[in-house]
Amino acid sequence: MRAASRSGETCFDWQDEETWAPALAGVDAVYITYYPDLAFPGAADTVGAFADLAVRNGVRRLVLLSGRGEEGARRAEVRVETSGADWTIVRCAFFNQNFSETFVDAVRHNVLTMPGGDTAEPFLDAEDIADVVVAALTDDRHIGQLYELTGPRLLTLADAADELSTAMGREVQYVPVTPEEYASELVTHGMPKEEAEPISELIAEVLDGRNSYLTDGVRRALGRPPRDFADYARDTAATGVWNLEEKAS
Questions:
Q1: Sequence-separated (6 or more) residues with CB below 8 Å from residue 198
Q2: What is the dihedral sign for C-alpha 240, 242, 245, 249?
Q3: Which pTM value belongs to this model?
């Protein structure tokens, strides 16, 4: 196995097609994750062009990380499904790990601001995604499967803040904001405006209630239940990632 990225030993850049073929040399299975998101304009065409190139270069299996309730993501899924490769689609709910990566500073400061209203979401652990992806890359029984993955229960963002509060032993408050307010906050924290605005709109879109239901994707793929948000919050709090002193050290 090898990882490919803009700064890794194996160079790969979605915006530079010249890096694609060298990254595929000697590869027979690929896990595709697109940055910044499959819902962005042009993403489906880019992923489709990559999938077609991969097949021409001898890749036999493609596994795509996708998102629930995103029209652009579905277009990318179709491009992979029609590429001629053996494929698996891993369509995922909102990641637990967003709270310890993307939103880590907000949680550190005990105020979680997001354009999510009071919508319930079945937050999903990235460890479950990794297990499903490894299975899809290595076991033929997953060929041609679309796995829609969710966590085991629905939580509002206020519920998630309560779980984080319990895990850390201090109160985290959820403050709903508009997409425009959230985009402005992202820009303040260093995200380019051309990324911040569509990301904010996407979060508001997928948290509008369209994904407020559970699926059996993790159990169907792995034969076990998905990891609960409370377990994620407890284990992550123990690492100190949400402690302000850890940020300064």
A1: 36, 37, 39, 40
A2: positive
A3: 0.93
Q: Which amino acid, residue 24? A: L
Phi-psi region for residue 149, left (φ > 0), alpha (ψ -120 to 50) or beta? beta
CB 31 within 8 A of CB 133: yes
pLDDT tens for 133-184 read: 999 999 999 999 999 999 999 999 999 999 999 999 999 999 999 999 999 9
Using N-to-C axis directions, what is the helix angle for 71-81 and 43-56, rounded to 10°? Answer: 10
Q: Please, where are the H alpha helices in the chain?
A: 20-24, 43-56, 71-81, 104-108, 126-138, 157-168, 179-188, 193-206, 217-222, 229-239, 244-248
Residue with tokens 């123990």: 238
Q: Which amino acid is at 3?
A: A
d(CA 225, CA 217): 9
65: left (phi over 0), alpha (psi -120 to 50) or beta: beta
The dihedral through the CA atoms of 111, 113, 118, 120 has a sign that is negative
DSSP secondary structure letters along 47-63: HHHHHHHHHHTT--EEE
Greatest C-alpha distance within the chain = 54
DSSP 17: G
CA–CA distance, 243 with 237 (Å, rounded to integer): 8
